[in-house]
Amino acid sequence: MIGVMTQPRQEASGVHRAIDAVWRLESPRIIAGVARLVNDLGLAEELAQDALVAALEQWPGSGVPDNPGAWLMAVAKRRAIDAIRRERRLERKIAELGHGLETGAPGTDPEEALDPERIEDDLLRLVFTACHPVLPAPARVALTLRMLGGLTTGEIARAFLTSEATVAQRIVRAKRTLARANVPFEVPAGAERAARLASVLEVIYLIFNEGYAATAGDEWVRADLCREALRLGRVLAGLMPGEAEVHGLVALMEIQASRARARIDPSGEPVPLAEQDRGRWDRLLIHRGFASLLRARALGGPPGPYVLQAAIAACHARAATAEDTDWKQIAGLYELLARTAPSPVVELNRAVAVGMAFGPERGLAIIDALAGEPALRNYHLLPSVRGDLLARLGRTAEAAAEFARAAALTRNAPERRLLRRRADELAARSG
Question: Does the keyword Cytoplasm apply (predicted)?
């Protein structure tokens, strides 16, 4: 009797796993396709979720369709037509859309439901809508991960160490803001497109950076967020192959992600770049990053911020050892970056490169000029970099104090331990 009861449960469990996998893969396309019809991101997600509920109800009995993505898309579009009809809107469009969708069962016309060109257009619209500058950065990140990543609110909350209620609220508010601002579901043109693309790239890189060096919590690296950002970047590069900065961002993330295995020791503690075992760097990711950087350069024009940052990352990737690093070239690239996209953080990074290329005194001069920057007042890397430069100058007591200050400012536990250890070592040497 136990065996008889277990088999159907196992089969149902397998169907539910299949539904979860299909939803992860297809939900951005389905939401994008439906949003094109209803021009409302919140409603589009609800209708896509309705299709998911229909799959959960029907597939355990009927089996997973041959083309599950097309099945979900067809059901979601059917629900969209019903919603439009209920609201008595877009009646001519109802006639056009309804004719094809109401003549067969879900999934009978997968070619129409999953037309590649139509999907690419819809996905691009979804990217630009979810990352609209009218939304604050945390809302853009949450909405992008929800709509394009297929992550649940719980997964997003865990990734950013916040409550599920907070993430849900951000997403709801983001949808309302987009609706109130009457943001069209489209890819803008001209200057507006360039401005919006910058927002899109910023959101993807914010997600990657949170995975690469977590700002808070007990983990130094969150590989799932790095993978998600890379996936989004690669999708965007496929949708916008003529944009050099898109390829530049992908190159930057690929090369930085290549260091993942070497960035933490067996106990999960951070390993600084200079101390990493470069034999553990992922050569495939490095080669992919180089290829993306070459594609960006082949498009011509002056290099943008992401192309320049990718070029800096490539300098590190080419060096067989830390001592082989071409710091003069990196310092020159940071000089270009400071002119292209000036910011206190860029200047901080330039100070590191200048200090390595031309001596710690030169780097310290740049750091000290940043002391009054409001944006860096509570930024732990400012005293951390200053402490490193002071240590190289032999000013160990001052360096120890800077590392102690950096440790007090960071909210990431492994990084705090690393900085505290460095402070204690320098204090012991100075005493």
Answer: no
pLDDT in tens, the chain (431 residues): 344 444 455 566 777 788 787 787 788 888 888 888 887 888 888 888 888 888 888 888 888 888 888 888 888 888 887 777 766 544 555 455 555 544 444 444 444 444 544 556 788 888 899 989 899 989 999 998 888 877 788 888 877 768 999 999 999 999 999 989 988 888 888 888 888 899 899 999 989 998 898 887 788 888 888 988 998 899 899 889 999 999 999 999 999 999 999 999 998 899 999 999 999 999 999 999 999 999 999 999 999 999 999 999 999 999 999 999 999 999 999 999 999 999 999 999 999 999 999 999 999 999 999 988 998 988 999 999 999 999 999 999 999 999 999 999 998 999 999 999 999 999 999 86
Distance CA 263, CA 276 (A): 7
Instruction: Say if pTM beats, i.e. exceeds, 0.85.
Output: no
d(CA 137, CA 49): 25
Q: Please enumerate in sequence order all residues whose Cβ is within 8 A of that of 136, keeping only pairs 6 or more positions apart, or say none.
A: none
Cβ distance 430 to 397 under 8 Å? yes
C-alpha to C-alpha distance for 151 and 27, rounded to whole angstroms: 10
Cα separation, 316 vs 141, in Å, equals 29
For residue 79, give both structure tokens: 């629900």
Domain boundaries, the chain: 2-114, 326-370, 378-431
